[in-house]
């Protein structure tokens, strides 16, 4: 991360601070001199601290930070705000803690299917699809038993948000489209979607999909591109929408880079006051010592090259009522406690799978932030991003193929979606797009 001060005084302060640190070190390390020349040294220290405070105040100017090619300007920050931020960081950057070993008594019944390493017949011949994992595993398989991995949050992470209150939260939204048109797929606040959804007459108790992983380009730092599952109940109109969400996203404002990262989210009041990403507030209870929520996913897919995907399953424990999350074929990540929710305390009424981007219309035109692979759905395998083995969990705690799904794209000229089914991939769809182009202005 390259930081450039917008005033030369920043450099002056930095130089002075180095001198001050050395001076303080010398003073502290020579305690005998303190006692012999106490009066002089106290005066010396007083003047030093006053000068240091003066330069610190001067240094609190805006600075421009380059985040993976994206410029972000930090606002001036006072000591009181920094103290509040540090207190918040102390709450979420926990020391190693014992996890809650609350394994759900009953896993959903899985239908037979091929695993991620099996060769799959495609239109262009036989190809191989691999499972993606997490970059940090390069240093080992996981944390010691009884602990969980937590991605450390920094002061700069918080400063990129609009405020401490907004940090780690999705933007609050306006009333949605009619319920029959999938309530989360709305264009207010610049959010655009290309999704498949099923609004079941029967009760829904979970959803599953295997999601192709890419690293879409983000045009400006306050935009993001996500590919995820939403499990929903309630409505925006009454501000009682409950949602649990999981997938991957590229979100420079939240993470400070442009890497695809595994994420979770929840809300119980239509994104107003409750909920957050990952472990940035109380809510989601992690039990796995192998998965770090918010960590980068690697490797990623490439155009005309190798394809990598992750499998995500979210379902309601039929006995206790918690909503559990599984990553891959057998890694239980943790759960959202039932008491977090009102509508989802019983069951879901809607499931969505697909892509979401933020379009802030930089320079007065549609964003160039990409969805999925950046290619439209019609380009197909090894070009377009996909969801495969799209399934739901029914009242019998059984996984069934999500047949009869509907699709919705807010703007087909920018991002689109095409669904289909096959013996190998069950219900699946391709989706995505480049954003700005001659037809998307």
TrEMBL record:
<dbReference type="InterPro" id="IPR053168">
    <property type="entry name" value="Glutamic_endopeptidase"/>
</dbReference>
<dbReference type="Pfam" id="PF03080">
    <property type="entry name" value="Neprosin"/>
</dbReference>
<dbReference type="InterPro" id="IPR025521">
    <property type="entry name" value="Neprosin_propep"/>
</dbReference>
<feature type="domain" description="Neprosin PEP catalytic">
    <location>
        <begin position="185"/>
        <end position="441"/>
    </location>
</feature>
<feature type="transmembrane region" description="Helical">
    <location>
        <begin position="41"/>
        <end position="60"/>
    </location>
</feature>
<dbReference type="Pfam" id="PF14365">
    <property type="entry name" value="Neprosin_AP"/>
</dbReference>
<keyword id="KW-0472">Membrane</keyword>
<keyword id="KW-0812">Transmembrane</keyword>
<protein>
    <submittedName>
        <fullName>Neprosin</fullName>
    </submittedName>
</protein>
<keyword id="KW-1133">Transmembrane helix</keyword>
<dbReference type="InterPro" id="IPR004314">
    <property type="entry name" value="Neprosin"/>
</dbReference>
<feature type="transmembrane region" description="Helical">
    <location>
        <begin position="12"/>
        <end position="29"/>
    </location>
</feature>
């Amino acid at each position: 991360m390259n930081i450039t001060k917008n005033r030369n005084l920043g450099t002056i302060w930095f130089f002075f601070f180095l001198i001050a640190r050395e001076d303080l070190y010398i003073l502290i390390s020579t305690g005998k001199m303190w006692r012999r020349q106490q009066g002089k040294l106290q005066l010396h220290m007083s003047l030093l601290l006053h000068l240091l405070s003066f330069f610190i105040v001067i240094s609190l100017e805006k600075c421009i930070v380059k985040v993976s090619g994206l410029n972000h300007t930090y606002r001036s920050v006072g000591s009181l705000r920094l103290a509040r931020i540090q207190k918040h960081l102390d709450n979420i950057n926990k020391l190693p803690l014992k996890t809650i070993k609350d394994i759900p008594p009953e896993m959903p019944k899985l239908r037979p299917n091929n695993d991620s390493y099996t060769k799959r017949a495609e239109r262009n011949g036989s190809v191989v699809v691999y499972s993606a994992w997490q970059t940090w595993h390069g240093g080992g398989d996981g944390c010691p038993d009884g602990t969980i991995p937590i991605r450390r949050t920094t002061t700069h992470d918080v400063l990129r948000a609009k405020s401490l209150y907004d940090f780690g939260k999705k933007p609050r939204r306006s009333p949605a489209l009619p319920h029959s048109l999938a309530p989360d797929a709305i264009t207010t606040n610049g959010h655009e979607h290309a999704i498949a959804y099923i609004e079941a007459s029967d009760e829904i108790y979970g959803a599953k999909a295997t999601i192709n992983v890419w690293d879409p380009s983000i045009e400006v730092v306050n935009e993001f591109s996500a590919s995820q599952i939403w499990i929903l109940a309630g409505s925006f109109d009454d501000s009682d929408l409950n949602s649990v969400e999981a997938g991957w996203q590229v979100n420079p404002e939240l993470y400070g880079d442009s890497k695809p990262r595994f994420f979770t989210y929840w809300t119980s009041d239509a994104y107003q006051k409750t909920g957050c990403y990952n472990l940035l507030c109380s809510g989601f209870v992690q039990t796995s010592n192998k998965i770090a929520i918010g960590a980068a996913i690697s490797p990623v897919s490439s155009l005309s090259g190798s394809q990598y995907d992750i499998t995500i399953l979210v379902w309601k424990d039929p006995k206790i009522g918690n909503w559990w999350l599984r990553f891959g074929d057998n890694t239980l990540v943790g759960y959202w406690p039932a008491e977090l929710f009102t509508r989802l305390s019983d069951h879901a009424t809607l499931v969505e799978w697909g892509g979401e981007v933020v379009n802030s219309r930089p320079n007065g035109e549609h964003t160039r932030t990409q969805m999925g692979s950046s290619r439209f759905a019609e380009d197909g395998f090894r070009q377009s991003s996909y969801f495969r083995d799209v399934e739901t969990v029914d009242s019998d705690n059984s996984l069934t193929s999500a047949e009869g799904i509907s699709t919705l794209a807010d703007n087909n000229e920018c991002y689109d979606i095409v669904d289909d089914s096959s013996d190998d991939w069950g219900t699946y769809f391709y989706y995505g797009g480049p954003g700005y182009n001659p037809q998307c202005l």
